[in-house]
Amino acid sequence: MSDRQSQPPQKKKRSGSETRQRGKVISVRCYDHEVVKIEANAAAVDLCCSSFLRVLGTGDRRSHERRRPLPELKPFTQAFGKLGIHCSNAYQLLKLANRGEYPDIEEVRETHKKLNMIADELLAIIRSYSGDYQR
Questions:
Q1: The pTM is what?
Q2: In this predicted model, what pLDDT tens digit does every residue of 26-57 receive, in sequence order?
């Protein structure tokens, strides 16, 4: 047997920070009627269920407790996500252009059209919240 075969395999080094605090997960079993009650009470104080139970259990509130996402902001966050995708595409085309590799003009036009469409969608959503319906 060679030396390599007799040695136990070395453990892979973990990625990430070695000093980061890793939290523990506590699973809690509940009946359906208890879950409904916990969710209702958490919603009443605008917290997620896990944050609500943590505050109840410890008596302390973290400065960065996770809040429930606002349902009225869902269209905005979806449109903002689309904008990020299209901006990423535009960035890739600009990187090519900076290297002297000019992309096909139709591809640039398509990306430009998508950016304009999503910008108009975001403006419509923002205007609907602000009450400013006219440009």
A1: 0.40
A2: 888 999 999 999 989 988 888 888 888 888 88
